[in-house]
Amino acid sequence: MPTSVELRQQRARVVESMRAITETAEAADRGLSAEERQSYERHENDFTGLTERINRQEAEEQRSAQLAEPIRRSGQGPDDGSRAGAEGRAKEARAAFFQALRRGVNGLAPEQRALVENAAGEILVPEDLETEINRELPALTVVRGMVSQRTISSNRVRRRSLSEVSVGWGKLETGGQTLSDSMPGTPEEEYTYVEDLYGLAKIGEDELDDSDVNLEAYVRDSFTRAVAEAEDTAGAVGTGHANRQPIGFMTTGGGVPVVQAANGNTTVKVDLFKQLIYAVPAQYRRTARFAMASGTELALSVLKDGNGQYLWQQSVQAGRPNTFLGYAIENQEDIAAVAASAKVAAFGDFNAGYRLYDRAGMTVKVLDQLYAEDGMIGWKIRRRVGGDVVRPNALRILQLSAS
After folding, report:
1. N or C: which end of the chain has fewer CB within 10 A?
2. Is residue 230 within 8 Å of 306, Cβ to Cβ?
3. Closest by Cα among 366, 356, 382, 386 to 130
4. How far is CA 115 from the centre of its chain?
5. Signal peptide location in the record (predicted)?
């Protein structure tokens, strides 16, 4: 009779088969064919059946383990079996993960490989460690700290979000209310896709001999830095699914309205930024902020009002951004610098207007041969993340004139 670990391996292979079917259809931008749908439904039945078998087998293994335990002396309470079992498996998976980072999956015992290896031969990052990495990302990125985030379990989400509701007195059934869509018009793409983001981290072979505690700190820091910069760039200027990137809020694909400067405005001016501010609806200005490159902020910092007072204000508190015209400024260096026809700044409520989609299941592949001559081990990290503008009306982009 197969063990629960072997059953979990079987179920993982079923999941990978289901994922391959959907990804094939999505890559071709079509629905499932009749044959694919039949195969997918068969896999769903297999998944359900294996899940039931796993639950039964784990319960049986737990009962057997409890029967094998010595009888406790009086005064000792019974253990919480389910909680202890889950915590034990989490510890075993974590230990197996760090062993896999040192030796690769081939250096693990079969039962350890079952805990951390997926069907593609990649090492699964423990859930708690992945959570810690996600928690540290905002400190290294600009976009993630401004926008909303959502964890999903699929490869895509429908781009047209739930409608915004304009309320009114009376009954909805009478048709007296007007409902307005938060994604006006028809978006260029129907779905927002979760893309694969790859990073590379290296470590010296001698450092691998360190304790798990020190190695964990290194892994958390290196993994976070490996993906932070690329994610931040894509959130601002990513070109979309055609290029396997999220959609950036500064790009045409995001659908954010553009405030076009009149002729003769090829540099930043106070009046242009006032126009940008008041182009955003009042409900989104309450929690709005600017996003621009550092060079653009530098140009703003020398502008004065009619009384010779600087309109840019430096922050006097650590961790608080500088302000211009009373609104916070965030520096995103992928946004264009001041130049003719350049889109130099965005303004609005980014938390309401843009969303990052995180899909659980960060993985690592150990490259133990590629950098062997340098005495290094490489870790190829795969993180799955998507991003898109969900409320274009909450944001505005300032574009300077061509001449």
Report:
1. N
2. no
3. 382
4. 24
5. none
CA atoms within 13 A on the CB side of 130: 19
Radius of gyration (C-alpha) of the chain in whole angstroms: 26
How far apart are the C-alpha atoms of 194 and 386, rounded to whole Å? 4
Opening angle at CA 334, ends 329 and 337, nearest 5: 75
Instruction: Measure the CA–CA gap between 21 and 90, rounded to whole angstroms.
Output: 30
Class of 125-403 per CATH?
Answer: alpha beta
Which residues 6+ apart lie within 8 Å of 252 measured at CB?
none
Angle, helix 212-237 to helix 127-140, in steps of 10 degrees: 50
Q: What is the pTM of this model?
A: 0.70
- Cβ atoms of 118 and 12 closer than 8 Å: yes
Domain range annotation of the chain: 125-403
